[in-house]
From TrEMBL:
Source organism per UniProt: Caenimonas sedimenti
Keyword Oxidoreductase found: yes
Family: Belongs to the short-chain dehydrogenases/reductases (SDR) family.
A single GO molecular function term of this UniProt record: oxidoreductase activity, acting on the CH-OH group of donors, NAD or NADP as acceptor
UniProt entry tagged with the keyword Oxidoreductase: yes
Protein name as catalogued: SDR family oxidoreductase
Cross-referenced NCBIfam families: PRK12826.1-2
Keywords of this entry: Oxidoreductase
Amino acid sequence: MTVLDSLRPPAGLRVLVTAGASGIGAAIARAFHETGARVHVCDIDRTALDRLATDSPAITGSVADASIARDVDLVFDDVLGTLGGLDVLVNNAGIAGPTAAIEAIDPAQWDRTVAVNLNSHFLFARRAVPMLKESRSNPSIVIMSSVAGRLGYAWRTPYAATKWAVIGMMKSLAVELGPQGVRVNAILPGTVEGERMDAVIAARAAATGLSPVQVREEYVRKTSLRRMVTTDDVAAMTLFMCSPAARNLTAQAVSIDANIEYL
């Protein structure tokens, strides 16, 4: 295998992407599919799953709330039925959570953010790890954190807290699973162009009294490269992390953010 060949994940990988029907998750699912991987996704949004199935019929899917253990168990029933095993888990599920001062955040909003952004990663990892230990295809877990997992994020405390937490999970699992050959890494996207970022900008504008245009300009101004990133940027890094070229890459938190200097 040449160095260039090693940069591409091998064909036939069995991949599960959580929250994989739209946005970053769908970009990752499609990218793996294009390399010849067998891909299964789960998502809470049935409409998005149906749309993905129409666009990419070879990608199978399950409707599931990633924060509910019973739903996760059903996803793995589907994974066993469609893939027969697992080589890669992309723990991508997450929500934005509330945008508000800490004293204005409803405890139910906090709990929901923790349930989706942190608990789901635990629920999927605990079911995936036994399967990954059986893999002989450079098995790995990719955890989707955020630039808010390395910086403080005013008005977004629940989100930032969970994104820091999954970094701790990644570091711990990398140590725990390394002797079995399972690698664990995290990606920290910055401001990613798309509908979700538009919603985040609108919420921040409402909380701060700025216009959406001003908030968008502020986000871009905080990056060294003065630009947002795309879902394809994140998908490309995910493919690299699961390629032979990354066989000694583990316990790493890699930012894909045009270098956000502060939040």
